[in-house]
Write a structure and sequence with these properties.
Distance between the termini: 37 Å
Shape: elongated
Number of domains: 2
Bound molecules: (2S)-amino(hydroxy)ethanoic acid, manganese (II) ion
Number of helices: 14
CATH topology of the largest domain: Aminopeptidase
Mean pLDDT: 95
CATH architecture of the largest domain: 3-Layer(aba) Sandwich
CATH superfamily of the largest domain: Zn peptidases
CATH class of the largest domain: Alpha Beta
Order of helices and strands: HHEEEHEHHHEEHEEEHHEEEHEEHEHEHH
């Protein structure tokens, strides 16, 4: 007699609290940046919890961390569920951790119920989803999908000056008991649970968002260069002030881009001035611009607008400007078959759900390039995220994990019903 697996809510909430204590910040959030000591502590804890269950733990050259629970048919491509453990510097304790720990709870719930799935189910914690310390974001899932680490990453230094390759090696070395496997392997499907990071679900009073697509994102590094000079002796007409150019460009962009298109998003998140002295006209001003749009052509047009305003501002101040695209993630749609499986799972549990597009990028967008993928969102209070105040009510934590559990039961069947689903299993040779 098979027992229906159920989520152990108090265990999951305990796990969330345990991981929230790793890199905890005074404001109630976490600072667990990618490949940091705190990130390694969280990975170590997850590996230990997995080992205590007898699950196999392995990692790949990008330090993506996998936990495997074998299925009845080991030759079938595994189902992959998970998210990330790294956080923003002043991040919340649910972004990433909720999806990773809910996925681990799914394995434990299956184990507790003695359920043997047809397919192996693997939990993954992707490396550096956030892209804050090392840019771009989603480096782990990008490397997995490409089955290689781009050479240019190995020479990179982080926003804190730390060398990427040394931090990556130290992170891999911190789990000596985790088998090291090649990058990239066949995946039958991928599901990621994540907080919505916006207000829609909470305002709609709906428990689950079934994510059908993710908008596109571009990250730009912009550098205005002028001439350092004395703050007291240099009259206006002799100044080549990159700060004046940067302020003019930012003001022009913030007065036009989002006002002109309700779906457009433009954020200047970081600015740095050299030499940065109170009585010196700046030599150089570097800033980051994050632009997003659900439509690829509109995102491209936004890039041109940023270019034009920066060029005009630089020229007006006698400065030069360079614009480097650091991250280009085109918008993407998720798989109808996996979306259907999640929708069926919610229906079967009596959990309310609605389709929605994600404003945030996620590792699932890269997995969607090699395997049928989709996401499950849960609401967060006031839609706040990337903020220490990020919060998900316990009830929504449990509903999210329940939706993930029942989606996993469906998606780990060797052959599954649901429209458009059968072709997934036809590719058991695996896409990569
Ligand atoms: O920035 C993003 O969209 C993601 O939350 N890191
Ligand atoms: Mn995230
Ligand atoms: Mn995030």
């Amino acid at each position: 007699m098979t027992i229906t697996p159920t989520v152990d809510g108090s265990r999951l909430l305990r796990r969330l609290a345990q991981f929230a204590s790793i890199g905890a910040t005074p404001g109630g959030g976490v600072n667990r940046q990618a490949l940091s000591i705190e990130d390694r502590k969280a990975r170590r804890l997850l590996a230990d919890l997995a080992g205590a269950r007898g699950f196999l733990v392995y990692q790949d050259a990008a330090a993506n961390l996998f936990i495997q629970r074998p299925g009845r048919q080991p030759d079938l491509a595994p189902l992959l569920i998970g998210s990330h453990l790294d956080s923003q510097p002043g991040g919340g304790k649910y972004d990433g951790a909720l999806g990773t720990l809910s996925a681990f709870e799914v394995l434990e719930a299956l184990d507790d119920a003695g359920v043997t799935t047809e397919r192996t189910v693997e939990v993954v914690a992707w490396t550096n989803e956030e892209g804050s310390r090392f840019s771009p974001g989603c480096m782990g899932s990008m490397a997995f999908v490409a089955a290689s680490l781009p050479d240019e990453w190995l020479d990179m230094t982080g926003a804190d000056g730390a060398p990427f390759s040394a931090e990556l090696s130290a992170t891999l070395a911190a789990l000596p008991d985790a088998e090291l496997r090649p990058l990239g392997h066949a995946v039958s499907a991928y599901v990621e649970l994540h907080i919505e990071q916006g207000p829609i679900l909470e305002r709609s009073g709906v428990a689950i968002g079934i994510v059908t697509a993710v908008q596109g994102t571009k990250w730009l590094d912009i550098c205005f260069t002028g001439e350092a000079a004395h703050a007291g002796t240099t009259p206006l007409q002799y100044r080549r002030d990159p700060m004046a150019a940067a302020v003019q460009a930012i003001a022009a962009l913030q007065a036009s881009v989002m006002q002109g298109d309700a779906l457009a998003r433009l954020t200047v998140g970081r600015i740095a001035v050299e030499p940065g002295s109170i009585n010196v006209i700046a030599r150089e001003v570097r800033l980051t611009v994050d632009i997003r749009h659900p439509e690829a052509d509109k995102l491209q047009a936004m890039l041109q607008v940023v270019n034009a305003h920066c060029a005009a501002a630089a020229e007006g101040q006698g400065c030069t400007v360079t614009l480097t695209e650091r991250f280009d993630m085109p918008p993407g749609r998720f798989d109808e078959g996996v979306i259907e499986a999640i929708s069926e799972a919610c229906r079967s549990c009596g959990i309310t759900s609605m389709p929605m597009v994600s404003g945030a990028f996620h590792d699932a967008l890269f997995l969607a390039r090699v395997a049928p993928s989709a996401m499950i969102f849960v609401p967060c209070r006031d839609g706040i995220s990337h903020n220490e105040a990020e919060f998900v009510p316990d009830e929504n934590v449990i509903l999210g994990a329940t939706a993930l559990l029942h989606s996993t039961v469906r998606l780990s069947a060797a052959r599954a019903s649901g429209k458009g689903f059968s072709q997934i299993w036809a590719t058991d040779a695996g896409p990569c």
